[in-house]
């Protein structure tokens, strides 16, 4: 098994569905149909320890996967899974096109302006592919930075660094009000 902390969150089990041991998953991936299909393997961690789960059946209902799992055949079997993370080793993620990033790759990146001023570290990525925003925590407090190529001019996930060219006032106006 890969190291739990090195694995990537792809979903969270919401609750049991029906009486035959299926669960509803809150997906944390843009590739729902590909990720949650029969034969897919996930890792989860609970008081019982780390467990490998294999998908036996899958369908998408209202944007969320409803999956059956090997060895789980009743609602009583799956009740203990509610709330657990579903993770996969990073190498099992689909390759993305150039200029596209998984959220986990951006979290922890140091953000600085083109002239080297430290803005902070990415603590969260909000939104979807059409309009993601980096939530950055640093000396200025929380700052929201649109994940747009004209602002985030250099993203190096290997070095965990993002260089930005913010429009005038972005770092001041965007500061969260405490």
Describe the structure.
With 178 residues, the protein is mainly β. 9% of the residues lie in helices and 44% in strands. The chain has 4 helices and 12 strands; from the N terminus they run E-E-H-E-E-E-H-E-H-E-E-E-E-E-E-H. The chain has helices spanning 32-35, 75-78, 103-106, 170-173; strands spanning 8-17, 22-27, 41-46, 49-61, 64-69, 85-88, 110-113, 118-126, 133-138, 141-146, 152-156, 161-164. The strands form 2 sheets. A 6-stranded antiparallel sheet has the order 3-4-5-2-1-6. The chain has a 6-stranded mixed sheet with strand order 10-9-8-7-12-11. A hairpin with a 2-residue loop joins strand 3 and strand 4. The longest helix has 4 residues, at 32-35. The radius of gyration is 19 Å and the shape is elongated. The model has no long low-confidence stretch (mean pLDDT 84).
Shape: elongated
Report Rg.
Answer: 19 Å
Strand order of the largest sheet: 3-4-5-2-1-6
End-to-end gap: 43 Å
In N-to-C order, the SSE pattern is EEHEEEHEHEEEEEEH
What is the makeup of the main sheet? 6 strands, antiparallel
Distinct helical segment count: 4
The count of strands amounts to 12
Structural class: mainly beta
Overall pLDDT score: 84
Unreliable runs, pLDDT <50, ≥5 residues? none
- Amount of helix: under 10%
Q: Bin the strand percentage.
A: 35-45%
